[in-house]
Amino acid sequence: MIVWINGAFGAGKTHTAHELQRRLPGSHVADPELLGFALRKTLPASDGDFQDLPLWRIMVRDSLIEGSRRTTGPVFVPMTLLRNDYFEEIVGGLRSAGVDVRHYALLTSRAELERRLKLRSGYVLGRILGRDETWGLQQLDRCLAALTRDEFGVHVDNTSRSLDEVVEWIAADLELTLQRPRLSPLRHQTRRIAVAARHIRL
């Protein structure tokens, strides 16, 4: 099973995927963004949105098909995907290949998304490492308009829900039994920092 976790930038896709993976031994997180950054560094004149590269969409689809065959547990995919044609090409392609794909869209208020993204961009270490959320802020209206459409699967409002509540709601909807408990507040924050640090793109 592939569980695609969609959402605007700052909605908590990556933290949700990694916490689901932590609480479900045998599961896996597959990050399509890594393929995009690899293509940017490999192909000439590829500084735009890597989702516009047909090769990226093919690589994501094919790698997820292979990944689903290599694990008995669910594969969690945190990735913003808004265009219907790209969604059909990747998610529709996975389903045509016989892969069970479940899709969740994390819906967060614009004010909360702005708060989260500005907190990131204002963080000194983030600026030193080149983490600029300006582009993400500019995409908020487009993201919110697209993700509220019915075709974007099950909507999960996480404006005021905690990460644990979102994870437990998704697991229950998937009929999966979480095998590990919640972390203590201190360990929870430590893990969030560690996950965020691993996803800083230089």
Can you characterise this structure?
This protein has 202 residues and is an alpha/beta fold. It has a single domain, classed as 3-Layer(aba) Sandwich (Rossmann fold). The chain is 53% helix and 11% strand. It is built from ten helices and five strands; from the N terminus they run E-H-E-H-H-E-H-E-H-H-H-H-E-H-H. It has a five-stranded parallel β-sheet, sandwiched between helices. Helix 3 packs parallel to helix 4. The longest helix is centred in the N-terminal third of the chain and has 17 residues. 29% of the residues are buried. The model has no long low-confidence stretch (mean pLDDT 88).
Spell out the key features of this protein.
Rossmann fold, five-stranded parallel β-sheet, alpha/beta, single chain, globular, 202 residues
Helix content: 40-55%
Number of beta strands: 5
**N to C succession of SSEs:** EHEHHEHEHHHHEHH
Strand order in space, largest sheet: 2-3-1-4-5
CATH domain topology:
Rossmann fold
Tell me the name of the CATH class: Alpha Beta
Strand content: 5-15%
Gap from first CA to last CA:
31 Å
Quickly count the helices.
10
Q: Kindly report the name of the CATH homologous superfamily.
A: P-loop containing nucleotide triphosphate hydrolases
Shape: globular
Count of domain modules = 1
Radius of gyration: 16 Å
Q: Please state the structural category.
A: alpha/beta
Q: Overall pLDDT, averaged?
A: 88
Strand count, sense and closure of the main sheet? Answer: 5 strands, parallel
Which spans have pLDDT < 50 for at least 5 consecutive residues? none
Do you know the CATH architecture? 3-Layer(aba) Sandwich
Organism: Yimella lutea
InterPro entries: P-loop_NTPase (IPR027417)
Pfam families: AAA_33
Protein name: AAA domain-containing protein
